[in-house]
Input
Amino acid sequence: MHSFDKDADHAAVDKVLAYARERLLMDPVPLDRPRTEGELRELVGETITPEGLGATRAMDLFEHTLAQACLSNDHPGYLSFIPCAPTREAAAFDVVVGASSIYGGSWLEGAGAVYAENQALRWIADLAGLPDSAGGVFVPGGTVGNLSALVVARHTARNRAKAEGTGARPWRIAATDNAHSSVVSMAAVMDAEVCGVPVDDKLRLTGDALRATLEEHGPETFFAVVATCGTTNFGVVDDLRSVAEVCREYGIWFHVDGAYGGAGLAAPSVRDLYDGIEHADSFIVDPHKWLFAPFDCCALLYRDPELARVAHTQEAGYLDVLTKAPEWNPTDYSIGLTRRVRGLPLWFSLAVHGTDAYVKAIEGTLDVTRFAAAEIERRDYVELVREPDLSVVVFRRLGWSPDDYQAWTDRLMDEEFAFVVPTTFRGETLTRFAVVNPHTTKEHISAILDTMA
Ligand SMILES: *Cc1c(COP(=O)(O)O)cnc(C)c1O
Output
């Protein structure tokens, strides 16, 4: 039996770290491709056995079969959804996080790590122009970030209605159809209702349309407005300034979902699109999307963290030693109790490279996106659907049916050349590039467009 024996443990650690080192330094990374369950069953068989496989066999199965049946999100030709392309430093530091057994929920247990995470959060808060009092926590993803923020918004609105004796119990969230699917899903979790606001001709949420929706349904029935800075499908940034003004006028919580696009705050060439974000009551950005951190990492920030603490702190006798302490306990600001210090890979990479390198890398992806848009305009067989605001470009291949798009996608994936899936907008099948990987070059873009001719 492969027991917990010291020599075997050392050998296993060496094997795992050797693989991690190799993968972290791999250049180029292979795209790889999925396999059917039947294929994997045949190739891998049963792995959980009473005696154990031993490190050599288990690692071998992972390295030579299982890992190769997973797409590498950091491949430069992976341009679907929103890819994840961490810096080597960030990805390597994730190994340290795993090795360190740090409980990231409380200051008492994770002070050093929480201090470092909070510095990374501060950098993001400063980019958004949030006040010194702002603070938050790294959560697993934008979905949990949106849910956590909306729970605080509702808690705050209902407490205020109670204090004012109005008897109101607001249950509605205002957002456009372009808001992320997680907003609708998390509203369902909260038993809240998302009330659709029509977009303008640039596909943006605006203050005027928001005001009309609030008036139509009764502003007292709303507890939050969700604006997006960088919609997932198109990268559209809502008109945050006018939306912020309407939120302030009605006293409704202003949440900004920047899960994908929030990183653009660091890029001078697009910074003015975000004008008004400094008024957000809460704001999220996923460093695992466009800030070069590994999965899974979302920065959740509140203008007034005390409101979040009141809404989220879990009370239990055995937790009193933590919750009654005056220090910053990250777990008090979101859904969830036990917490991995998932902000540390971002922190380490930021500390190593400095923020200027981030500005440059983000501007680099924007430059490649602008090149892609120009190439699409130049070629007669493809057509831009909308000028990109950020680093997503959506386009059509003239004359292609949905089946043609899918066949093209499958071919590029089978060849392990690129991963570019179709998307739909207003009933039409299209395709899109999401450029968040600094290793995606203009040459990659041209080569992919060539395959559509
Ligand atoms: C990706 C995304 C989310 C969800 O984030 P997860 O990390 O996938 O949970 C929410 N909002 C927007 C705008 C996104 O792009």
Notes: The mean pLDDT is 96. DSSP finds 16 helices and eleven strands in the chain. Residues 82, 141-143, 180, 182, 228, 232, 257, 259-260, 286, 298 surround pyridoxal-5'-phosphate (CB under 6 Å). The longest strand covers residues 222-228.
